[in-house]
Design brief:
Elements (H helix, E strand, L loop, with lengths): L5 H4 L5 H19 L5 E7 L11 H7 L3 E6 L5 E7 L14 H19 L2 E7 L4 E7 L2 H14 L9 H11 L5 E7 L8 H10 L1 E7 L14 E2 L3 E2 L2 H5 L1 H24 L3 E5 L5 H15 L1
Parallel strand pairs: 3-4, 3-6, 6-7, 7-10
Antiparallel strand pairs: 1-2, 4-5, 8-9
Helix pairs in contact: 2-10, 4-5, 6-7
InterPro entries: DUF58 (IPR002881), vWFA_dom_sf (IPR036465)
Protein name: DUF58 domain-containing protein
Length: 293
């Protein structure tokens, strides 16, 4: 049984990987702080030395004098975990672990990095029937609460996924520019969610961590296989080469469509096939994101 929680993360990450993660997170910090990466405070009359970029010309015209928007500096980055808690996340991954376990390792890694740096972390998690939201805050206790709630929500008895509903909630809940990390199934977000992703990407840096599915046709003939949505799969389906090839093609097409849609929107995607792959995959995601910012 894998140990979960923030205390278990450090032992799973190799020192060179940790150093690289912290370096890349510092780069993300700088990227998110650029431009108007500050919280709106109030309006004030323009004074010599104020940045002309802060002048609100419409407000100035209304009041008859030049006014500027003032911003309050914030000391940390805001990270938002957007977690699919649908029943498909309770299925098996290629490593033999449950996808839930891998998703939790991803959440733990990100939460641990945020607490290590003093950043804030928030949560939006849900499926077709449930939606859970926690505001972004700093501190180990808050991060641990997020992890406990994610762990409690994913299992084979969960309702089906509803990624569109999840993304819409994330869009409505997160106003401050953030690093949004979406943890979901490898066939999600579906291409018909592109409009919501486009708006999310306009406001935030977005990474999708896709948890891979085990191939049901790779198991020995006679192995009971239960699809989390369709139920038990007949043995003849698993043993038929032609049907297996068609299933491979259909799965590959779905993954290709998702990857193409995310690429169009400038969203970084990495695949997770095991818990051990999470840290290095997050390094890859941050490196890719730094090139497209």
């Amino acid at each position: 049984m894998r140990a979960h929680g923030l205390e278990a993360v450090a032992s799973r990450i190799e020192l060179p990987v940790l150093r690289r993660l912290l370096s890349l997170m510092e780069g993300q910090h700088a990227g998110l702080r650029a431009g108007r990466g500050l919280e709106f405070l109030d309006m004030a009359e323009y004074k010599v030395g104020d940045d002309v970029k802060d002048i609100d010309w419409l407000a100035s015209a209304r009041v008859g004098r030049t006014v500027v928007k003032r911003f309050e500096a914030t000391a940390n980055v805001q990270m938002i975990l957007v977690v699919d808690t649908g029943r498909s996340m309770g299925a098996l991954a290629p490593s033999g672990e449950t996808k839930e376990d891998i998703a939790l390792v991803a959440c733990e890694t990100i939460a641990w990095l945020s607490t290590l740096r003093g950043d804030q972390i928030g949560l939006v998690a849900g499926d077709a029937e449930r939606m859970r939201q926690m505001p972004a805050r700093s501190g180990n206790a808050h991060a641990e609460t997020i992890l406990r709630r994610v762990a409690a929500d994913i299992d084979l008895a969960s309702p089906p996924s509803d990624t569109r509903r999840l993304l819409q909630r994330a869009l409505a809940a997160t106003r401050r520019r953030s690093l949004v990390v979406i943890v979901t199934d490898e066939t999600q977000p579906a291409p018909d969610n592109e409009d919501v992703l486009k708006r999310l990407r306009t406001r935030h840096e977005v990474i999708v961590m896709s948890v891979a599915d085990a191939d049901p046709t790779s198991f020995p003939r006679g192995t009971p296989v239960i699809d989390v949505n369709a139920g038990p799969l007949p043995d003849f389906v698993l043993g038929d080469r032609e049907l297996a090839a068609q299933a491979h093609e259909a799965a590959a097409l779905r993954k290709t469509q998702v990857a193409a849609m995310l690429w169009r929107r400038g969203i970084t995607q990495v695949s997770l096939d095991s818990g051990a792959a999470v840290a290095r995959s997050f390094v890859t995601a941050l490196e890719r994101g730094s090139h497209v910012r």
